[in-house]
Amino acid sequence: MNTDWKLWGLLILAAVMELIGDLAFKWWAETDNRWWLPLGLAVYGGALVLFAILLKRAELAVIFGLWVGVATVLLAVIGWLVFGESLSLRRMAGLVLVIGGMFLLQE
Asked: Under a CB-based contact definition with an 8 Å cutoff, are residues 51 and 63 in contact?
């Protein structure tokens, strides 16, 4: 994926939408508030539409790897900040490897 900023913008938007969906599912699981589940599903649906649009302009392995990588790093940090989930040195090293992998996926 080259430095096409429209593609990067769509990719980041899709990853953030996935992140919001993941957080909605987490809040649904922890609070049993029924409205979080449909919100999570709707936002996930939007993220998948953006993902499909991205596939028209770049390779599947690159788009999927970058999308999942961005979401993984953001979820780890937000999980640590919002939910008090652990962020050990080993986990941080894994996140650094994910970021490195995202750079290696680009041509």
From this structure: yes
Torsion angle in degrees (nearest 10) through CA of 91, 97, 100, 102: -80
Confidence (pTM): 0.76
Nearest to 20 by CA among 70, 98, 75, 102: 75
- Domain carrying residue 90: 5-105
Domain count, the chain: 1
Tens-digit pLDDT profile for residues 6-59: 888 999 899 899 999 999 999 999 997 899 999 999 999 999 999 999 999 888
Smallest CA-to-CA distance from 63 within 53, 76, 73, 74 is with: 53
